[in-house]
Amino acid sequence: METVGGRYALDGRLGEGGMGQVYRARHLQLGKAYALKIIAPTFASDQVARQRFNQEAKLASEISHPNIVSVVDFGEDEQFGAFMVMELVEGNSLLNDGPLPMAPKRALDVLAQVADALDCIHKRGIIHGDVKADNIMLVSESETTAQAHRRRVVRLLDFGLARGDGHDEEEAGVSGSPHYLAPERCAGGPASVQTDIYALGVLGYLLLTGGLPYEGSVTEIMMAHIHDTPDSLAGRLEEPVDQALERLIARAMSKDPAGRYGSADAFRRELDAVMNMLDLGRRRARGSGLLAVENPREAVISEAFESSRLAQALVSIDGVLAVANTAFAKLIGHDSGKSIDGVPISDTALNTFVPGLMRALRACHTDGKPQERRAKVFRGADKPPLELVIWMTPLSVPGYELHLIVRVDELVESRR
User: How confident is the model over 74-123, as pLDDT tens digits?
Assistant: First the structure.
């Protein structure tokens, strides 16, 4: 029986990580099973690689999150070299958990959980550096949950390429999986929050279309990341794809880092809004402009919102209409036969009538304080002008960060 660190008995190989082999191991005193990673022989005598391996263990041991595999121990063994001990995840790898492409609801749920994991490590100043399908496991949520409704929980693996944000690059080349590398990484630039966001977009592209955006040799793939535009989601699928979903993935995969989501949390909020808009979340009943209700009190609130003669809407942080009542749809001249969900408010007549509206929306969210804007709308010489009074109130609900109420009054102007 081979033992590591004097306390872990090896019991078969499980797989391979970025810098070593992973084995099933049993703690000799506790009898508990773990996953134990041993540094690969090719790296064992490389001082820099050993430091990176120990860095991975240290970084991962500092993180506790339901979507991240935790490290419980690490050290050095005279025979095997550096090792780390992780909780044993019993489940399927993402790519072995079912055919691709995934159904949109399932794919977006996976992306949401990966985004949550990334948000956790990014807030600690850590960049993962190797987000890809191979580094994601799916496990059952709980044995106490009804089997038919048991959710598949994402566990993000392998921090072998993780590093602090803003670190100095020590490796003499580009690290990471070529299919998921952001353009700036392909060009030799440093890893950042935005490079993890790009990889998250590639992952979404794979799950939704069944294929990666670029194929070929390593060089061809990296050049494509820099110069080429991938096929749209709709271009890879036979069925129609909602534009909000196209925008979500396209923005995450923007060539310009500044064009991507500023954080994994921002990606998650937009993803939530898309799921709600596509009736994949918990909010909407199909064909209705109302919020879904679960009890009589919510039914009264929903009816009051819809029947109000004041135009009202809930808007996401990015200025996208999430839900609006009939009065609001009529105010902006929206086709009553089409859903208003996903319409950017910047594309509506309201943005034309009220200069600086988008700035006011951003200020309302940033400052956390209500805002008011007024505007005069002229309708010709034979009709009195209208005054629009817009109240904006910040909300703490992801995907519905702003509540807009619009009052319209006819102005009676004095004649001289």
Answer: 888 989 988 999 888 888 889 887 889 998 989 999 999 999 999 999 98
Which structure tokens are listed for 79? 């025979």
Segments making up each domain of the chain, as ranges: 3-87, 92-277, 296-410
The active-site residue, picked from 109, 116, 130, 318, is 130
Q: Which pLDDT belongs to residue 193?
A: 94
- In sequence order, the 6+-apart residues with CB closer than 8 A to the CB of 244 are 273, 274, 277, 278, 320, 341, 342
Q: How far is CA 41 from CA 85, 188, 212, in A?
A: 18, 27, 31
Q: Dig out the tokens for 123 from the structure.
A: 């807030």
For the chain, how big is the Rg over CA atoms in Å? 26
Strand ranges in 80-224 using DSSP code E only, listed in sequence order: 81-87, 92-93, 126-127, 136-140, 152-156, 163-164
Q: Quick one: CATH architecture of 296-410?
A: 2-Layer Sandwich (3.30)
DSSP-derived letter for residue 17 is -
Asked if 130 is an active-site residue, the reply is yes
CA-closest candidate to residue 201, choices 221, 219, 180: 180
Nearest one of 92, 62, 85 to 6, comparing CA atoms:
85
Write out pLDDT tens, residues 196-235. 999 999 999 999 999 999 999 999 999 999 999 999 999 9
In terms of phi and psi (left: phi > 0; alpha: psi -120 to 50; beta: otherwise), the region of 282 is alpha
Assigned CATH topology for domain 92-277? Transferase(Phosphotransferase); domain 1 (1.10.510)
Q: How many CB atoms lie within 10 A of CB 174?
A: 16
CA-to-CA distance for 343 and 364, rounded, in angstroms?
20
CA 276 to chain centre: 14
Taking alpha carbons only, the member of 52, 56, 81, 54 closest to residue 68 is 56
Q: Are strands 20-27 and 33-39 parallel, antiparallel or unpaired?
A: antiparallel
φ, ψ for residue 387, nearest 5 deg: -110, 125
| CATH architecture for the domain at 3-87 | 2-Layer Sandwich (3.30)
- Count how many Cα atoms sit within 13 Å of the Cα of residue 163 in the half-sphere of its side chain: 19
